[in-house]
Every structure is written in C-alpha cells, then in structure tokens.
C-alpha cells in the first residue's frame, strides 16, 4: 500500500471506501475490539476512526469522530500504533488469556466474547478489508491506465 500513487489514496470504486477510509475503519475496528473489548477502555475510539454507515441512526455517539478528512500520513501513523498494539497482544497472549470473557464492545448482554473472539474479529476485519482494497486499487489502476 505504501507504493500506492497519491491520486488513488482517496479514490473510490462506486460506493466503496477509499484506501484512506478503509484504513480509518480498521483503526475503529481495532479500537472497538482490542481497546474496548479486550482492554475495557471506556471510550476506546480514536477521533479519526471511520464507523459503519447507519451507526448514528442506531444511537451511536458520532461526536467522538472528526468531521474533516485527515491526511494519509496522519491516518497511517494512528494505524501503525493500532497494529503495534495487536502485535503486542499476540506476542504475549496465553491460552488462558484468550479464553477469558469480556463484555461485547458494541453493547448488549446477549454475548460475552472471549479475548480470542475479539482477536478473531480484528483479524477477520483486516483480511476482508485487505481483499477489498486490493480489488479496488486494481480496478482504479486499470481505469487510470485505460484513461491515459
């Protein structure tokens, strides 16, 4: 992703998120599941996180998040911090820790995820969004070559 041309950082394929928006969403996912779920931080979200569409209508406090568009370098710096947090957790996790129950970071008492469940959600988000970004950057690259 580091070699992505600057013109593609904020580019969209139809209604999909841009690369920068995807990275912001991954910050949010890590904040929810690691900082909120695993670590129990009361307000775990960084202001540049990007939440899913419709969260405001569901009653989520959207005032946490910035309304301006942060720059790529700022997003990458926060993303690197979150990746380091996940790496540290994985490096020190024991089977006992992974089996411990936590509160659902999105609320509700119907499910008490384990630390392992929270880690799986983070990794699934990473995998899914990596696939989307690669797909979209390939399509955008094809369009820019065709338009040349």
SSE topology:
Elements: H1 19-38, H2 72-92, H3 95-99, H4 115-147
Helix pairs in contact: 1-2, 1-4
Properties at a glance:
mainly alpha
What features would you describe in this structure?
By secondary structure, this protein is an all-alpha fold. It has helices at about 20-40, 70-90, 95-100, 115-145. The two termini are about 20 Å apart.
Care to give the gist of this entry?
The protein is built from 4 helices and no strands. It has 148 residues and is mainly alpha-helical. It is globular and about 50 Å long.
User: Span between N and C termini?
Assistant: 22 Å
Question: Residue share in helices?
Answer: 40-55%
Largest sheet: none
Low-confidence runs (pLDDT<50, min 5 residues)?
A: none
Secondary-structure element string: HHHH
Q: Give the DSSP E fraction (strand runs of 2 or more residues).
A: under 5%
Structural shape: globular
The radius of gyration computed from the alpha-carbon positions, rounded to a whole number of angstroms, is 17 Å
Number of separate strands: 0
Structural class designation: mainly alpha
Count of helical segments? 4
Give the rounded overall mean pLDDT. 91
């Amino acid at each position: 992703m580091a070699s992505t041309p600057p013109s593609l950082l904020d580019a969209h394929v139809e209604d999909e998120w841009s690369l920068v928006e995807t990275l912001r969403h991954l910050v949010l996912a890590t904040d929810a599941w690691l900082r909120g779920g695993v670590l129990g931080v009361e307000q775990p979200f960084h202001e540049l996180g990007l939440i899913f569409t419709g969260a405001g209508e569901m009653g989520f406090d959207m005032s946490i998040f910035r309304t301006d568009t942060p720059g790529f370098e700022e997003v990458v710096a926060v993303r690197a911090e979150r990746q380091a947090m996940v790496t540290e957790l994985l490096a020190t996790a024991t089977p006992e820790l992974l089996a411990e129950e936590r509160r659902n970071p999105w609320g509700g008492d119907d499910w008490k995820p384990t630390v392992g469940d929270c880690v799986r959600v983070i990794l699934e988000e990473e995998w899914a969004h990596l696939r989307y970004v690669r797909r979209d950057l390939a399509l955008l690259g094809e369009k820019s070559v065709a338009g040349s």
